[in-house]
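To whoever picks this up:

The parser on our side crashed when reading a file containing two proteins. I've narrowed it down to the boundary between the first structure block and the second sequence. Both blocks are reproduced below exactly, byte for byte. First block:
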Amino acid sequence: MRFLTAGESHGPELVVIVEGLPAGVSVRQEALDEDLARRQRGYGRGARSTRIERDHAEVVAGIAGGTTTGAPVAIRIVNRDFANQPAQPKSLTAPRPGHADLAGGMKYGLDDFRLVRERASARETAARVAAGALARSLLAHFGAEIGSFVVAIGDRRMDPAANVSEMDASALWALAGRAEDDPVRCPDPDASARMTAAIDAAKEAGETLGGVFVVFATGVPAGLGSHVHWDRRLDGRLIGALGSIHAVKGAEVGDAFALAELPGTGAVDSIVRTAEGSGLGRPTNRAGGLEGGMTNGRPVVLRAAMKPLSSVRREVESIDLRTGAPVDPAYVRSDVCAVPAAAVVGEAMVAWVLADALTERFGADRLDAMLAAFDAVRADARWTPPAAGATDVMDAAIDVDAER
């Protein structure tokens, strides 16, 4: 599977083409548009997201009667703000620190940094969310779901900030459910109030704020990904997908950075027999649902750190490359905080990587064939846990249904 996006921030539209979705996947128009709307919400967003754009996914190819056909899916998202743009916008000759302006101008030999800014803008993530919504539609047929919540904005954090390694699927979804209607996608009301106050203070000071969000997936079958080659290990693919989101500068699987401070025995997830004795369980999930580059049947849990947005109203230093003079580059309308929106984009990217891994394992042409292959793996007698006291641990495996 792969997807390609095209379009500029203030151009007429964004376009995404998705290739590799199997035939037979049910896709609801309402689900596409709701994910686009979720990306636009969040305390600290600018006027464009909250008042101007009302994103709608217009499917123009690859879906017939609400079902994928196996052909590439094409979706366009109209930019309503295009109508407000001047016919001849002023050239930008002073690169903005923290943006793609200077590096992109050097790479492509461009004198007008507006040409870099337009494509580098986070507006492009609307197209990613549309692609991610298609991936979620595929995952749903296998019982896998994706959620997210925010654990920190600036120095305001949940208490505990992100203690999710002890949580099962139901606990994670309880947090995500409370976060869904919160202005900053934080499931802790007290922490949310502190976060919104910090955003207000940053806005007053002409500053911006970053933060940390959690993305998780439940019901993911064991064995997605691979240990045999570096580029097939799912840890790296998921971290890379999150790291590709605008302003995200770090990502981890499970409790990665906290585990770096512990001895080995404190970093493993013990394998135990479930209470009823019919399967195997893990009392913790420090590994974030991934071992050896593969899913292990536990919830997949990741965190990502987003830096403060670089478009600030306060003065910053740059050089006008047309005149050579020091200058404060022109302020471009932006958000004060986009962490809640980035969490939704993170869901889309995680959904995409997991859906891609799913097609690798179970096929990619037809949904019914994929489901048959999936059911065959689940029914394999070798995956039945041995009786208590048995010594052949190679005959035991995670019950992939335990987290559903």
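<<boundary where parser fails>>
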Amino acid sequence: PYYHNCVVSMKPDGTEVTDADRRAEEIVREMITKQCPDDSILGEEFGATTLSKTPYRWVIDPLDGTSNFALGVHYWGVSIARVVDGWPDIAALYFPVFGELYTARRGGGAHLNGAPLRTAPAPLPRPVAFFACDSRVHRHYHVNLPYKARILGSAAYNFCALARGIATIGFETTPRIWDLAASWLVLEEAGGALHPYQNAPFPLQPATDYKSLPYPILGAENQETLTLARQQITPKQK
């Protein structure tokens, strides 16, 4: 598979990057700049452009799930959000191996390949359900949930899985703003709920170094489930 032909290196923050991450962001930046030359861009690999002449800012994760991509695991994709006055208002995430395109517009709902997404409005009895999380959750938090845990390796996909209804609760301990901007809007517009454990990621602030800011986020398919999950996930004593 072509995944294994990519060049993998480590960034200063200890995360992996491939030549595909960088090239994907270059392509997305070129397309946005061509269509919206006055807008600013914030990307994982190349940082932020200067402040724009418009209230629009594009947030790009060119390849969420880099480790998966490099290893040939299928959970990886591209995440793009347009932020207006600090808040996501348009989102698109594409996971090419699965052929899944998630889109959302603020006030206009969320969709998967053009079909509307809507989460359960209240907790449902489920014979099969799972808790989508990252690999650090059980090291730093006590988790007492009645669901099987699944580590998919893509923060963006975890929250899309909530919007789609295949996950019930999701928790990411160290996502960056580009992991969240698009998937946050998709889950919100699908009827799900989110709770920042520390600082809230939105509204975006000017002149901020987002590379060094993690945003622990708990998500759920509805507000009632989120409230219960907050009681069942608690930080461990240091």
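After patching the parser it read the second block fine. The first strand starts at residue 8 and ends at 10. Residues 74 and 97 are 6 Å apart (CA to CA).
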